[in-house]
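sorry for the late reply, my laptop died twice this morning and i had to redo everyting from scratch. anyway the thing you sent over, i finally got around to it. pasting the sequence first so we're on the same page, its 514 residues, then the predicted structure underneath. double check i copied it right bc i was rushing
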Amino acid sequence: MTALTLSTSSAATVRADAVVVGVAKGAKGVVVAPGAEAVEAAFGGKLATVLETLGASGAEGEVTKLPAADGLKAPVVLAVGLGDAPAKGEAFDNEALRRAAGSAARALSGSKKAGFALPVEDAEAAAAVGEGALLGAYAFTAYRSNGNGNGAKGGKKSDSKSAPLGEVAILGGKPRDKEFKAAAERSQALAAEVNRARDLINTPSNDLDPKSFAAEAQAAAKEFGLKVEVLDEKALKKGGYGGLMGVGQGSEAPPRLVRIAHTHAKATRTLALVGKGITYDSGGISLKPAGHNETMKCDMSGAAAVFAAVVAAARLGLEVNVTGWLALAENMPSGSATRPGDVLTMYSGKTVEVLNTDAEGRLVLADALTRASEESPDAIVDVATLTGAMVLALGHRHFGIMSNDDAFRTSIFEIAEEVGEQAWPMPLPDHLRKGMDSPVADLANMGDRMGGGLVAGIFLKEFVGEGIAWAHLDIAGPAFHEGSAWGYTPKGGTGSAVRTLVRLAERTAAGDLG
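ok and here's the structure:
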């Protein structure tokens, strides 16, 4: 992974392949952001003019490279757009810094080191720059024959230009300051875990099935001192986990339920996280149409986010108990697969008529939610690439937040905004419950077509323990990015919701959620 350092060097004296400066859109043209004073001086005070001549405008994510002027140790200056310049006396917001740092890191792939001379007025700003740069530098190379990664399928090492930036040096980062040092360490741990989730999401299903996913959790548990328990198909069948078994019974790769937990001796609160982990979703007997199968390795993004968040909590030593539940299955059509019209008896004892086998995520989550509720946590959050309806409602960059507690939903929304993850609060209208009435079972796994994302949330609510605050994050839109990379968001798996879950755990540890 890309290294992160705090440097006392100036933008003029840092020895690196490039020095990164920020520029913004001002009322009269390009404005050079704070942090770049030494570079501005080397260009005789005309850096903005030079950049405008090259076509730069300061727009968010815009990258302009130019040869360094005399007096700079680095041979290249990279100017990255921060968007609109803030009002006088105000600072750039942290998300603008994250995205700019990410864009710069992506543009410098193949380089060994870059000095980031972006505005870092305080430790939080330094953390944003570090986080954005580390996330932007991400590359999944395990399956490339000339990759630089050490993945099982990787070939010989090379100096490929697609290799991630080797080192990010935050200039003006105050390495001896406790707050700056802690911020950098948090950024490294957090980015490492977001990238862990990305790696899992990008791994093809022939190499990541429920059993191998569980093995990944067991390996991480051993490395970071976590408690882990894996229920295999025999234990699931014996325990009455009808949702997990019903979804997984059509595949040669049987399901798993993984419990992975970070505990702290001083913790007084417990947070349970539940993740949908469909390692491949064909739709089952209700087979997906052509064109909808190619990216279905990403249907375990919720479980990847939960797994990564629990490990991050351990790495950060958070004074809160965080328990992750990974509901893992592969949804395949076969002679043994669940059929539309079948009735499953869930772990809770409720019966569910399966009207559509492609509405499988809610079935595995239902079992995991019931099991998590038995431990009486203070709150439960589930994360899932659950519905195409949520993508239709919110697009590809926002995830939806539903909850049985309005205050809890608001808190998660505010946390998502704080960490730079785009989200939107959604309702759980009572009248939509009737659409899931079944003539043969307690409820069906499908309801009204309109508002389908909300219907899925209402289904899950049925399996949450009485009196437990619960929220459902439908990350179907932002979990897997098929377009061109932007900011710190790569093509492929994004690690959506990891940062929100970690901040939620931090706030819970601090007692900020009531």
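The longest helix spans residues 178-202.
thats about all i looked at so far, will dig more tmrw
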